[in-house]
Amino acid sequence: MVSSLIINNLECQRGYSQLFQNLSFQVHAQEVLRITGTNGSGKTSLLKILAGVNIQEQGDIKLDQHFVKSDEYQQEVFYLGHQAALSAELSSLENLEFLSALNQPVAREVLIQALEDIGLKGYADEACANLSAGQKRRVILASLFISKAKVWLLDEPFTALDPKGVKIVENRISQHCADGGMCLFTTHQDSALPNQRTIAL
Q1: pTM of the predicted structure, to 2 decimals
Q2: How far, in Å, CA of 139 to CA of 142, rounded?
């Protein structure tokens, strides 16, 4: 059975502001959904709702008949926020080890390989305080080479990356979807990933 993420009549408010309403769409296995919109339009709020971090005012969210708060849904979703924090005192490897342990422990060798895959070969033992903004972002994005979740929810994944870093992340997203996964990401940048659709909030 082809996996499907189904969003039906979603509504979100922030204070007295209506960010979006009657929002419905579907994303299937091997598909990419690019979410665009102006600042404050609700892109981050949408991803947080889909991740189960925030609660929608109205609407249904299902992955293969499992609702957003169910264990079955949560086990298949990986959410990466655009403000994910690193500890400046810890090394790249130690930070990635901490981030990965939030889901399940990962072998040290796998973590080191993930750092190399994201373009940080030789930086495993470097304190994050000594890294540039782009390198810190890469430490966080190394999680993409570890995650086994079916659905990726990525908030501004290309922020602070140089063109080479953007290409690495795009290739990883493409591979994930080719392997049967799906990806929803917010961005202000252009992209042309295989099987990509775009919605604007």
Answers
A1: 0.94
A2: 5
